[in-house]
Amino acid sequence: MKRITQIMMLLLLIGSASAQQEKGIIGTENWLDNWTDFYPKNADYGEPSQILIGNITQDTKLSKRDTYLLQGNVFVTDSTTLTIEPGTVIIGDFETKGSLTIAKGATIIAEGLETDPIIFTSNRSVKKAGDWGGLIILGDAPTNKFGNGSVASMYSNLDPASYRFTNYGGENTNSNSGILKYVRIEYAGKKRRGGENFDGLLLASVGNETVLENIMVSHCAGDSFEILGGEVNLLKAVSYKSNSNDFKFNLGSQSRLDNSLAIRSPYATSSNGARCLEITSYDKKEEVDFTKPGTSVIAKNMTMFNSSEDLSSHIKMGLIKEAVFIGENASLDMNKSVISGFNPAVILDDKITINQENLEKIKFVDMYFNNCNGNIFKEYNSNNEDLENWYGNRSFYNVYAKSQNSETFIDLKNKRRPDFRLRINKIIAANSKN
After folding, report:
1. In whole angstroms, how far apart are CA 207 and each of 175, 177, 178, 275, 337?
2. Has this prediction a pTM greater than 0.70?
3. How far is CA 420 from CA 96, 267, 269, 414, in A?
4. 234: nearest Cα among 167, 296, 181, 175
5. Per-domain residue ranges for the chain?
6. Quick one: signal sequence residues (predicted)?
7. Is the Cα torsion angle 411, 412, 415, 421 positive or negative in sign?
8. Which helix (H) or strand (E) holds 180?
């Protein structure tokens, strides 16, 4: 009997460890190895040997043997395909706010390799967030707006003939804008017309046949990833030290975000604050057709981590905000994810009525809330007792802890190969929020 009891206890411990390992980013190996770069500032890719300018109107292939300068607003138009070889470097021009737009109906095939990623970066000797524009992909999947959308207001000095290449939206949920795989986008987010910033990667009305895997956006002055409408599936996406939001979903997007990472720094954030994950259904109510679905996101195995070494001081200074914001008429199903070091972990829009119907559209299940100054609050409301009771119910399997970052994650100090998976043997699975 004693032997059977010991075996059962061992199996229980193994099961508990496996359950913990399933939270946050997962993988038997560290999938960040080889293709990511958390310190790209000093990288030297040499002088450009080719210039990309104006409209790309016929199928074009960019090769690894050349380095390309992205000058001004470059559009891949109509039914054209732009193919980029593994290891190719595309440098965004600072002076002309270089940007690359894949227009509706066009395709990008940027399929790098783990050992040979494709790199979009800055042409400045001292690189900073916002050095160049960014990468924009426009598709013909639906949004919840009346009519279709346009990103024309983003560009400075836009040629009137190019306005038609800035439109997005349609009815083709299964549309295919191509492949982005093992791609890095560095120092994007140049100021645009109206005072806002380009995003590192903007996906507007992109359909579910588009492959988006192993993409890293680092040191972006705008949002790292912004998704407007469409049906986007993002896998192994990394946002590192963005000044604005890491992942932003809006305009009725029906999307998934799997096994992905957002790392915030208290010293790299806009004056308006920024979140790891922002989910809203509109900017202006009058532009939205409420007979269409609002934004809905399924987020699984996310790790959202604040790199602050002095959390309480940075919170007092106003440098750390919430990790997740959910707007009115939007829904989020988040599970098996880690939120560590925020103030608080989650905020719900003050327009959301706290009742069972609305809370069933905002799910947090099998989560690991760590070292946050509060967990789930309603905006402008310091009393979160109802929300704590709801999400603290044992049926949700949420875990609450107060562990230091160095004790929570496997290896944060390794500059070349950091590992943000959970350090299993340091985590105690407890339902206490104290």
Report:
1. 4, 7, 10, 25, 25
2. yes
3. 37, 20, 21, 10
4. 181
5. 22-426
6. 1-19
7. positive
8. strand 178-186
Locus of tokens 């300018």:
53
Query: Measured between alpha carbons, how far is 202 from 252 in angstroms, rounded to an integer?
Result: 15
For 118, counting Cβ atoms within 10 Å of its Cβ (0-12 exposed, 13-18 middle, 19+ buried), the class is buried
Tokens of 296: 């809905």
Longest dimension (CA), the chain: 82
**Tokens coding 354:** 């706290």
In a structure prediction context, what are the per-residue pLDDT tens digits for the chain, which is 434 residues long?
444 444 434 434 444 444 455 899 999 999 999 999 999 998 889 899 999 999 999 999 999 999 999 999 999 998 999 999 999 999 999 999 999 999 999 999 999 999 999 999 999 999 999 999 999 999 999 999 999 999 998 887 888 889 999 999 999 999 999 999 999 999 999 987 777 899 999 999 999 999 999 999 999 999 999 999 999 999 999 999 999 999 999 999 999 999 999 999 988 776 566 899 999 999 999 999 999 999 999 999 999 999 888 888 888 888 899 999 999 999 999 999 999 999 999 999 999 999 999 999 999 999 999 999 999 999 998 888 889 889 989 999 999 999 888 889 999 988 888 999 998 754 433 333 43
